[in-house]
Design a protein that fits this description.
By secondary structure, the protein is of the alpha/beta class. The protein is 33% helix and 18% strand. The strands form 2 sheets. It has a 5-stranded parallel beta sheet with strand order 2-1-5-6-7, sandwiched between helices. A two-stranded antiparallel sheet has the order 3-4. Helix 4 links the parallel strand 6 and strand 7. The chain starts with 7 loop residues before the first helix and ends with a helix.
């Protein structure tokens, strides 16, 4: 897939079909974008699962924080990633080790890794890069 541009229909379908979202890099710091996006996605009705090994066991927005994806007790539809592009290979390794693969990996603004996107797409996982669901959702769904 060409990740230079996404059709609105592609993003809209992902955002409407997604029910569960793991947010890798969720932060308790209100100044961090991952904090605000987690809050927005939770308030928008998604079942969110914050991932951050440094604060595992605590709660953010009433949701238990997990150390890693494998600790989440339910299958995940989307993995929303707040990590730098160089860390994406490790995230993809974590995703591919899950017993049930998520439908989507969504990389936040300024995060792109085409080689790792291709690895996931070869296994049937859709990928969005350099976009934010907290920007795209209100734009596409009102």
């Amino acid at each position: 897939m060409n990740h230079d541009r996404y059709d609105d229909s592609y993003l809209r379908q992902i955002l409407t079909e997604t029910r569960t979202i793991a947010v890798i890099g969720a932060s308790p710091n209100p100044a961090r974008p991952s904090h605000g996006v987690l809050g927005y996605l939770t308030a928008s009705g998604y079942e969110t699962y914050p991932i951050n090994p440094g604060i595992a066991g605590r709660e953010l927005f009433g949701r238990t924080v997990y150390a890693r994806l494998a600790d989440v007790p339910v299958p995940i539809d989307m993995v929303d990633v707040f990590r730098n592009s160089g860390a994406i290979a490790g995230v993809v390794d974590e995703i591919l080790a899950l017993p049930i693969l998520p439908k989507v990996m969504w990389l936040q603004l300024d995060i792109r890794n085409d080689a790792e996107a291709a690895r996931l797409e070869a296994r049937g996982v859709r990928v969005v890069m350099d976009r934010c669901p907290a920007i795209e959702r209100p734009r596409l769904l009102g």
